[in-house]
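Onboarding guide, step 5: your first structure request.
Type a short instruction followed by the sequence, for example:

Predict the 3D structure of this protein.
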Amino acid sequence: MGEVVSNAKELAGYLSFTQTHDMATGAGSAYTPLMIVSTLAWGLGYFGMPHILLRFMGTKSEEKLNLSRRVATVWVVISMAVAVLIGIVGYGVTATGQIEVLSGSDSETIVIRLAMMLSQHGIIAIIFAGIILAGILACTMSTADSQLLAASSSISQDIAQRLFGIKMSKKHEMWVARLTVIVIAIIAIFLARDPDSSVFGIVSFAWAGFGAAFGPVMLFALFWKRANKWGALSGMVAGGVMVFVWKFLVRPLGGIVDIYELLPAFVIGCVVLVVVSLLTAAPSEKVVSDFEAVRASAQTR
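The system replies with structure tokens like these:
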């Protein structure tokens, strides 16, 4: 472990709070305001993540929400710290020549390479390597099934039945959900067809899309009783579209607009939601009373 830390210290700016390390040049560079803002913007994505919201919605009772929040926060800190540690260990191993230097999308396979290297040192090491690989598969399945469940239920219930008023039996609803899963799987295969594509790049784009489309709606639904369905719908569309616009049209221009697309898309989604809500009819008295009841209940806990 000491050798790994020593190798990390040799990376200019790697362990610094004021600088970052550039693997392409091997030099350290100062954090710019744009880099700081773009990095902080990642936190906005949590407000719109379906698989995270479903975990909170599925809690056994309201009394356990506080505990769930604390556990989730602590786990995020641990998982992020482990991700950084894996990077440090990976660099240390490649620096000693035990694994070839990885670049581009190949760098995302470092955990698998470490597990393969570990499996060459006896039966106990093989077991640990298997646990590591199983952990990767478990993480993938945990996120994937939550996303698929959220998407299939949204199509079969929220969009088909509640939005468009299509009456379906339980059997038809199940088939619609299954077809939704198949369609999403085909889209996923299409996105993953390029072996040189970066998982981080795809996740970053999807994170921005979810955060900008659903994040503002969640926040305003919880804290602003004047928000209505037209504002929510407009905010989702505006936030989602702006992610694509900023990613492919604005950000390539560079300069001061070279920031993570989640931030401007999130802001646009919030603005559109507020403006459209104020220009359209206020929510019904029942919606407002339910809002006040939920807020009063939350304040008493």
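Each response can be followed by summary notes, for example: The beta strands are 19-22, 27-30.
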